[in-house]
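Milestone 3.1: sequence recovery, worked example.
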């Protein structure tokens, strides 16, 4: 029987083709690539593509999303995986520092965790690398002057924005809600916080699943866009009072806190789709005197009981829902194949000196976007 990882690898058509090319061209010969990215089946395909290009790869996961099968698979393929799944920030910090202790020439970062720590103990041979996310771009753009090396931000590629952040995250958050709760979306009031690419896709996916969707977004232009797209844009308190499902997708901390407890509906389901687990302030909610109990129900569901008898359900402890809960699948293979093809091409560009030292925390160059788009159209639609 083939494993899920084998299925994913076999379906990553872009990465397979790049791995074949890299095996001949060896862009990473004699280089070490350090990575701090979710360790799940699709990243396995990426990391093995980098290895095919001659890289020594040393990897650790992100908080709470590491899948043991992925770690086992990678170790069997001689990828150096540091640590295991953890929700402990201190432990996670140690893993990241251990990756950096190997002095990688290139970093593949997710959330800015590696580059930010690199500044605590700099070394000359770092050529640069890539950052995957919005949250990472925001964090690292403040450190540009100190970083001083090419860092290409995958998230800022238009391809990543529409294929992954909008279409794929929307589909996988919906899939996660259905898988974890086994509850219908039809006629439910769903309130989405944030109308960036991620929020936009989530709102559309739930509407397509016959929910009634409203959006909370501080930027008036985006709020107007949400309204033009046909979503309700109520004030925050009204939205929360009516919501059966609340989904955060903002990149900000403390979007839902104990201050909202009085307005939340009985049996509301709280879900976070943003990168950091701080969007729903779960610890602050749990510590509130109005909370009388907590029950950890079926995998991925925590029920919070309030003094007045209301219950609030939090999915996957406030961690990114589409990478948690039972049998998490993450985003679709096609979307990740696209995003990781961008990663592989950007790392190749930095390794080959095709990115200038001034390209510190900049979007993927247009020529790489075009290369990857052409390859996708040829291999998937041809
Ligand atoms: N779950 C996944 O698989 C996945 C994939 C990609 C990105 N992400 C994460 O999703 C988050 C959002 O990504 P994005 O690309 O849409 O970001 P974005 O910056 O484009 O959009 C975020 C939006 O949230 C709004 N916002 C900020 N604070 C808010 C608040 N308190 N209430 C309501 N809205 C608020 C902002 O105005 C902005 O429009 C990030 O943390 C990103 O890393 C998750």
């Amino acid at each position: 029987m083939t494993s899920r990882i084998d299925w994913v690898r076999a379906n990553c058509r872009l990465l397979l083709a790049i791995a074949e090319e890299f095996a001949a061209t060896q862009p990473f010969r004699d280089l070490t690539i350090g990575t701090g990215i979710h360790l799940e089946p699709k990243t396995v395909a990426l990391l093995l593509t980098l290895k095919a290009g001659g890289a020594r790869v040393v990897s650790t996961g992100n908080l709470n999303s590491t899948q043991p099968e992925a770690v086992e698979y990678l170790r069997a393929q001689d990828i150096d995986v540091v640590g295991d799944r953890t929700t402990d920030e201190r432990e996670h910090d140690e893993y990241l520092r251990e990756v950096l202790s190997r002095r990688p020439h290139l970093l593949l970062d997710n959330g800015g965790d590696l580059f930010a720590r690199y500044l605590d103990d700099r070394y000359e041979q770092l050529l640069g690398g890539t950052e995957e996310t919005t949250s990472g771009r925001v964090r690292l753009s403040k450190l540009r002057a100190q970083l001083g090396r090419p860092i290409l931000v995958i998230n800022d590629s238009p391809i990543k924005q529409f294929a992954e952040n909008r279409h794929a995250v929307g589909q996988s958050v919906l899939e996660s809600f259905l898988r974890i709760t086994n509850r219908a979306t039809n006629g439910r009031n769903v309130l989405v916080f944030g109308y960036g690419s991620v929020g936009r896709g989530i709102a559309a996916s739930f509407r397509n699943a016959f929910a009634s969707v409203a959006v909370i977004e501080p930027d008036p232009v985006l709020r107007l866009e949400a309204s033009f797209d046909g979503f309700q844009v109520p004030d925050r308190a009204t939205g929360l009072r009516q919501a059966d499902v609340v989904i955060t997708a903002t990149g900000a901390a403390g979007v839902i806190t104990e201050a909202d407890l009085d307005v939340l509906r009985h049996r509301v389901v709280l879900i976070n789709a943003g990168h950091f687990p701080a969007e729903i302030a779960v610890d602050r909610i749990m510590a509130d005197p109005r909370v009388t109990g907590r029950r950890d129900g079926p995998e991925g569901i925590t029920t919070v009981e309030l003094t007045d008898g209301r219950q609030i359900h939090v999915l996957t402890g406030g961690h990114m829902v589409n990478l948690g809960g039972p049998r998490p699948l993450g985003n679709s293979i096609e979307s990740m194949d696209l995003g990781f093809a961008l990663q592989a091409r950007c790392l190749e560009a930095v390794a080959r000196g095709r990115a200038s030292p001034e390209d510190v925390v900049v979007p993927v160059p247009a020529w790489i976007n075009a290369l990857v788009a052409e390859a996708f159209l040829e291999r998937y639609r041809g």
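The chain is about 45% helix and 15% strand. Residues 158-181 form the longest helix (24 residues).
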